[in-house]
Amino acid sequence: MREVDSKIITEEVKRLCIEGNIFLGEDVIKSFEDNLEKEESDLGRDILKILIENASIAKENKIPLCQDTGMAVFFVEVGQEVLIKGDTLTDAINKGVSEGYTEGYLRKSVVSPLTRINTQDNTPAIIHYEMVKGDKIKIQYAPKGFGSENMSKLKMLKPSDGIEGVKKFILETVSEAGPNPCPPIVVGVGIGGTVDKCAQIAKKALFRNIGEHSDDEMILDLEKEMIEKINNLGIGPQGFGGNTTALSVNIETFPTHIAGLPVVVNINCHSARHKQVII
What we know:
The protein is of the alpha/beta class. The chain is 40% helix and 24% strand. The protein has 2 domains: 2-20 and 65-144, Dihydrodipicolinate Reductase, domain 2 (2-Layer Sandwich); 147-271, CATH 3.30.1330.
């Protein structure tokens, strides 16, 4: 059994929160650059250049990429041979979020859902756990802005709706969202499970690097078909028109009940921020 001090977890989470809001992944920047070569709209190309410049300024000046530094979302894989000393894992992560958002001068955006009273430190975080073999802890973090989160949708399709119903729902969701989620977007899709599981895997899909696709050939083909159709909608960068509406469509599936076909479309803005650490 390997012991890990909870203070190490807190420090690493604090770092992830600060760096995750400042440094955009090279995969996203490369996608901007690749789409710049393919974008047919002059205004669309100008906007992609601005997004590349924005990432450069944020990195150089060590300031957040966007004023919305999101709600902290974590996917955590915990090795079954790890013993955490000190705080619980949940408390250690939330302390890291509190310190990261406070010391990093990141906007505190978390409030009570009804009173709207701010929690003052961006806690509590949204944390998804998975027990795995081994003696390591893998922590994946993403600051999820709500301009895009608000455009996400759930639909309980009938099994008879089939794959065509899934495609229709994805396209309708992106089309109705229009410019609101700050395109070019990343589209996370969950298919199957229950309401909660479907939403979880749709969120997990957003943690993929741009260019990372499903290992399932059928799902891979669906991802390719959907990004082509989404980019043909003409929404374009920031909604000003063009053929770069989405950078990626990432689809995850999970077995479901014979009577159901849940689908969740979870949209991420162009600032597809996520970082990870293995402790």
